[in-house]
């Protein structure tokens, strides 16, 4: 949790060194840093697109790394290998169209060989031959310990097999600067051969929320970083461009295609959801930046965002709606991250379903549903819920009822 990690990672000497790093190693990227990849994502022939969200694996050294917060009887046999074993099982059970890793993939403080740990933790996704993407969390990088800057960590991910991850956006304008590493968007096209097969009917946005930081100017601040104005400017411009393309010829649509946003550290607004409005559990305070970035208002202003998915809080797994945007935790997946003994680690699944139009073709998105799978013998499914539906746009189209694989 935040208090324990702060004590472990900082001290006065560390503060001075980190300050130097902040001054001499800026986090601003330009378009020259981009590695542009072809976007191959598309709804399947059943009119569905399934995303498996994996957060907070905290992988370190494989078998040599002990588990945290498990029953005493499990300590002898539990290690990082439990994390990767369950990842393989989850991928096999759900067979998603895309795997999204939402940060704290590697626990850099404890990883003896950082690149090897990266390779091992993503190996189940690579072996599956399913497209996958990742962003960084606050524990993925600790330059004081590993000597690896945040940019290099994201570059390593971008260079791995089967990933569509990007170092930063491919659509940055000339001389445009953007804060952080791992800001990008992906488009999901309609079903092959359908009227919308050349349009992005679902848009995914990924943003870097940084790490724990210190600054003395212009004001003193110790805490988590936040989504910066340059990121929000790029996000708004990209959302506008995608909406214009979707609602223009050929086959102009009446409403924007739904957008989903993924980042690691939650916004302050995650604390504004009451327990009566949640599906899932809130078992710890929302550890977020001390600065309200305004990004929740930015998502509202964009007009296309239906849900935002985060990690960071390992024992929170709830979704709750605020101003028509669903705010969802993914919960902790890895056994080297903190948890609660007896409360199974888990992952979130997001399933997006298209309308079946009156002429039998696949149309725009009809519904977005979610559920969670637990780390237990049966990979139990819990908390199925509808996050968004297009009811009201076309009353002649029947509402989609999710079918979850068991």
TrEMBL record:
InterPro entries named among the record's database cross-references: Calcineurin-like_PHP (IPR004843), Metallo-depent_PP-like (IPR029052), PAP14/16/28/29 (IPR011230)
Location of the Calcineurin-like phosphoesterase domain: 49-274
UniProt-listed Pfam families: Metallophos
Coiled coil, from the record: none
UniProt superkingdom: Eukaryota
Gene3D superfamilies assigned: 3.60.21.10
The name this protein goes by in its record: Probable inactive purple acid phosphatase 29
Gene that encodes the chain: LOC110790121
């Amino acid at each position: 949790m935040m208090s324990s990690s702060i004590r472990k990672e900082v001290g006065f000497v560390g503060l001075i060194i980190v300050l130097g790093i902040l001054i001499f190693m800026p986090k601003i990227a330009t378009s020259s840093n981009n590695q542009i990849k072809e976007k191959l994502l598309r709804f399947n022939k059943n009119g569905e697109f399934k995303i498996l969200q994996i957060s907070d694996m905290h992988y370190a050294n494989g078998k040599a790394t002990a588990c945290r917060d498990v029953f005493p009887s499990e300590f002898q046999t539990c290690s990082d290998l439990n994390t990767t074993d369950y990842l393989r099982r989850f991928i096999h059970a759900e067979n998603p169209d895309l795997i999204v890793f939402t940060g704290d993939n590697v626990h850099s403080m404890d990883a003896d060989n950082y690149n090897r740990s990266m390779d091992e933790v993503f190996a189940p996704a690579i072996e599956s031959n399913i497209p996958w993407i990742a962003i960084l969390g606050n524990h993925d990088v600790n330059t004081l310990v590993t000597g690896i800057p945040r940019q290099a960590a994201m570059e390593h991910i971008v260079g791995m097999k089967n990933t569509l991850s990007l170092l930063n956006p491919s659509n940055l304008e000339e001389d445009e600067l953007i804060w952080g590493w791992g800001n990008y968007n992906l488009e999901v096209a309609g079903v092959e051969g359908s009227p919308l097969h050349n349009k992005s009917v679902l848009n995914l946005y990924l943003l870097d929320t940084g790490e724990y930081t210190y600054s003395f100017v212009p004001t003193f601040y110790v805490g988590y970083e936040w989504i910066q104005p340059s990121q929000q400017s790029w996000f708004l411009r990209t959302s506008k461009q995608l909406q214009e393309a979707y609602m223009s010829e050929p086959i102009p649509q009446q409403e924007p295609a739904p957008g989903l946003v993924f980042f690691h550290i939650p916004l302050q607004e995650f604390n504004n959801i009451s327990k009566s409005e949640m599906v899932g559990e809130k078992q710890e305070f929302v550890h977020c930046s001390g600065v309200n970035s305004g990004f929740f208002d930015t998502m509202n202003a964009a007009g296309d965002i239906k849900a935002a998915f985060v990690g960071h809080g390992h024992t929170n797994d709830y979704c709750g709606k605020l101003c028509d945007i669903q705010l969802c935790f993914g919960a902790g997946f890895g056994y080297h991250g903190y948890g609660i003994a007896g409360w199974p680690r888990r992952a979130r699944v997001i399933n997006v379903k298209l309308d079946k139009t009156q002429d039998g073709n696949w149309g725009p998105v009809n519904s977005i549903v979610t559920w969670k799978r637990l780390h237990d013998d049966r990979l139990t499914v819990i908390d199925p819920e509808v996050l968004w539906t297009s009811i009201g746009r076309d009353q002649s189209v029947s509402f989609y009822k999710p079918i979850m694989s068991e």
